[in-house]
Amino acid sequence: MQKRLLFLFWIGFAITAPGFAFAQTGGTGGPTGGTGGGVSLTNPLGSSNVTDLLNKIIDFLILLGAPLLTIMVLVGAYQMLFSGGSQEKFLTGKKTITYAVIGFAIILVAKSIGLLVKNVLQ
């Protein structure tokens, strides 16, 4: 039991010790201010404001939505083609295609609204 506790203590120490070492910066100004030792953080999203961030999110949704739209149209067509004369299965395929197109249209409208707001505010 004591060996396990000692092992867990050393694992915890090994995990937290680098955090203490990195917390000490060699920057000018001491603890009240300064440059922070030349440490700089870059924005991982690469956007400087909210509109750029929203445009990147919408662009990602378009890149994700276009192949998904194609797949859903094919699934809907498959459902309609192999409905076997069943009106309910045929309507299910039709709804699948309709909802896929509506979903992708919403993404495209969001992109155009974002561009419109950006142009109006500039």
Descriptive notes:
It is built from 3 helices and no strands. With 122 residues, the chain is mainly α. It has 2 domains: 2-27; 50-121. The chain is flat and about 75 Å long. The termini are far apart.
Question: What are the key terms here?
Answer:
122 residues; 2 domains; mainly alpha; 73% helix
Helical residues, percent: over 70%
Q: Average pLDDT, to the nearest integer?
A: 79
Main β-sheet: number of strands, strand sense, barrel status?
none
Measured between the Cα atoms of the first and last residue, the distance is: 67 Å
Compressed to H and E, one letter per element, the order equals HHH
Structural domain count: 2
Which radius of gyration do the C-alpha atoms yield?
28 Å
Let me know the number of strands.
0
Q: Uncertain spans, ≥5 residues at pLDDT below 50? A: none
Count the DSSP helices.
3
Task: Label the structural class.
Answer: mainly alpha
Describe the global form. flat
Approximate strand percentage: under 5%
